[in-house]
Amino acid sequence: MQYSQKVLDHFMKPHNVGKLKNPDGQATEGSPACGDQVSIDIIVNEKTHIIEEIKFQSYGCASNIATGSIITEMAKGKTIEEAKNIGWKEAAEELDGLPPVKMHCSVLAVDTLRNAIKDYELKHGLAEADKFSKEMIVEELKKVIYPQVGEDIVSLKMVKYVGFENGVAIIDVDIPSFDTYRDNVAEEIEEHLEKFPEIKEVKITM
Ligand code: FES
Hints:
Blueprint: H1 5-12, E1 25-30, E2 37-44, E3 51-59, H2 62-75, H3 80-84, H4 88-94, H5 103-123, H6 134-141, E4 145-146, E5 151-152, E6 159-165, E7 168-173, H7 182-193, E8 201-205
Parallel strand pairs: 7-8
Antiparallel strand pairs: 1-2, 2-3, 4-5, 6-7
Bound molecules: FE2/S2 (inorganic) cluster (FES).
């Protein structure tokens, strides 16, 4: 697999590794695509809302370690609002790119950071727990990467329809029967949607 020098550098010598004592925000997330995990701890200045300290622990692949390292570097010194706007494409770009099949590692890092910030916001009364809606399903589908090209299935216009009724999520995906990644994409959609207790069943039509 072709990795950039920057990915290799961050993999060999990751920055900000470890845990923080009494973090203000914390999140541990697993990638539905591969089962790997990242956890992020943050210390936030209560007045300025600047992320003053940040550490991560990785339980996964080289890209997982490299993206954990880069995302913590990118978020350090930023306000929580600024850090929330860091996207997975920017994180991958900051590493001078990732192989398409490894783009989900970048999604995982960004997701974990956003959830650590959310944890801080919830604990400090800055946000309320999200109310479930169909839009949340669409947002979650933006984290499902089509591995052949390293782009999400929503941007690729593969998602033709999203519905939610009586606890059943209905997703219509346009992906040909001969596509090697077909089952992989279906599995990933299911795993991404598993985290919503409101969804009792996922129906995928292809
Ligand atoms: Fe699992 Fe990279 S995070 S393959």
